Amino acid sequence: MNIPHRPRRNRKSQVIRNMVEETSLSVKNLIFPLFLTEGNNKKIEISSMPGIYRFSPDEVLKEIEACMNLGIKSFAPFPHFEENKKDKFATISYSKENYYLKTISEIKKYFPETCIITDVAMDPYSSDGHDGIVENGEILNDETLTILGNMALAQAQAGADMVAPSDMMDGRVGYIRTILDDNGFTNVSIMAYTAKYASSFYGPFRDALDSAPKAGDKKTYQMNPANKREALIEAELDEAEGADFLMVKPALAYLDIIKMLKDNFNLPIAAYNVSGEYAMIKAAAEKGWLNGEKTMQECLLGIRRAGADVILTYFAKEYAELNN
Ligand code: PBG
User: Ligand 1 pocket: which of 54, 86, 123, 168 to mutate (most atoms <8 Å of CB)?
Assistant: First the structure.
């Protein structure tokens, strides 16, 4: 046959396939989210996220040490709080008694070379389970900013390297930037949850934190999954307000958004491979319907190929173990 162009020649051996590989993925690109809980000696598996746990502060130090030995250096801790610690204004989020803040300081004391990315949003501390203050069923924007500012400052004081507002209130990046700067934390970065969609994929995370909304949904602040151009508006605002990273969340159903932000902005792009995306692969693998390890690697590679510089993923440790 006369076939002058045979793309298969570039796939004929592993050496050549490796040589022409366009996308690379390494543990350097991964951020490992961690769930914390108060107390001692606790490591409680999340039933909808096999292999993922809520750790008490003593246990999380061991987990971080194990991850560091695998080359994972960036962590995004999220706090679980008992219902009786929550109130309408998330007061505990910036209180000196907050075990989450104390744990951040401990982690940075024992592992100063880590990058610790803290979560700024009211939901884990809110008796309403929303990311902002709820009044008559409405989520108040500007009143919420005050609380987010207090929270971000407390996290910076505790030693966070980056704060990551996941709340989707308008103006929060600029508001937090100003508060950090006014208090001397010009070096603390902001990883903005820029295009965060009102997604069904967050279910297992809400199980992990017991943080589901008590009433209503998050559609007045998180984005409509049908919308793409709106992500450009959010990204322009976050960039102008001083964000250091732009994040897209979830990742797999939003690869076009990752690519669009990558093409239009020069800031590093983060993608959050969320809890439901983890749970789906784990569930199918448990049933023997998919090869979990290979599917996971393919998904992470796809997120990178779409343009993510960094990926927050519950698979980080497993990936590191497989590729060490
Ligand atoms: C809330 C927050 C959520 C996640 C990260 N921060 C859930 C939500 O918005 O309800 C989800 C992460 C995941 O599903 O892995 N501020």
Answer: 123
| Domain containing residue 238 | 23-323
Q: What's 224's DSSP letter?
A: P
Q: What is the DSSP string of 199-265?
A: -GGGHHHHHHHT---SSS-STTTSBPTT-SHHHHHHHHHHHHHT-SEEEEESSGGGHHHHHHHHHH-
Can 249 be counted among the known catalytic residues?
Answer: yes
Element (H, E) at 259: helix 255-264
245-282 pLDDT, tens digit per residue, is: 999 999 999 999 999 999 999 999 999 999 999 999 99
- Supply φ then ψ for residue 78, to 5 degrees: -125, 140
Q: Which of helix, strand or coil describes residue 196? A: strand
What residue's CA is closest to ligand 1, atom 6? Answer: 166
> For residue 85, what is the domain's CATH number?
3.20.20.70
What separation in angstroms does the CA of 228 have from each of 197, 215, 223, 250, 269?
10, 27, 9, 13, 16
Query: CB-based contacts of 110: which residues, under 8 Å, 6+ apart?
Result: 61, 64, 65
pTM for the predicted model, two decimal places: 0.97
In a domain, 38, yes or no: yes
Q: Which of 196, 218, 262, 317 is catalytic?
A: 196
Task: Count CB-CB contacts under 10 A for residue 97.
Answer: 8
- Asked if residue 180 belongs to a domain, the reply is yes
Question: Tell me: the pLDDT tens digits for 85-108?
Answer: 999 999 999 998 999 999 999 999
Alpha-carbon span 182 to 33, nearest angstrom: 29
SS3 for 241?
helix
Give the relative orientation of helices 275-286 and 292-306 as an angle to the nearest 10 degrees: 150
Q: Which helix (H) or strand (E) holds 149?
A: helix 142-158
Task: Specify if 9 maps to a domain.
Answer: no
